[in-house]
Amino acid sequence: YRIDNIDGFPKPEQHLPILIGAGQKRMLTLAGREADIVGILTTSVASGTLSPDPAERLASGVQQKLAWIREGAGARFEQLELSLIPSILLADDRQARAEQYIRDQRWDNISVEQVLDMPSVFIGSVEQIIAQMIARREQYGISYYVIADALMETAAPIVARLSGA
Known about the structure:
Layout: E1 19-22, H1 25-34, E2 37-40, H2 59-73, E3 81-84, E4 87-90, H3 94-105, H4 112-116, E5 121-124, H5 126-140, E6 144-145, H6 152-163
Parallel strand pairs: 1-2, 2-3, 3-6, 4-5
Helix pairs in contact: 1-2, 5-6
């Protein structure tokens, strides 16, 4: 049925935000052009499984992805929300935990410093990880992090501190 001349409440949403998650040039450029929210994938899923290659996680890889988004977005880039799915590793010794992470991932030819600089990898104490998240927000413009359910317990003290709880 149809109703004319009604001033109802709540008012219908005039624009529903669009989120596009992507990791390669074609889709990130499209996301920049069309989406309101861009989920930056730092691990390729082009083959249907997660790629073990660390190149897309490196700072330079994420900077390239941001350049593709910016290319698509043009002047509207500053209005975009950007997100990542992080790896969060609580540790007292960042160096030792990064070394273990490299072994766990079976990465060759990658340094601890490169891992510690990865925009989607957070290693350290709760306080160190919070500082890293804030710094990377400033450096890369990441609006928020999507926490996987497997990391809820690990991330809980970080979320609590960031929310002021």
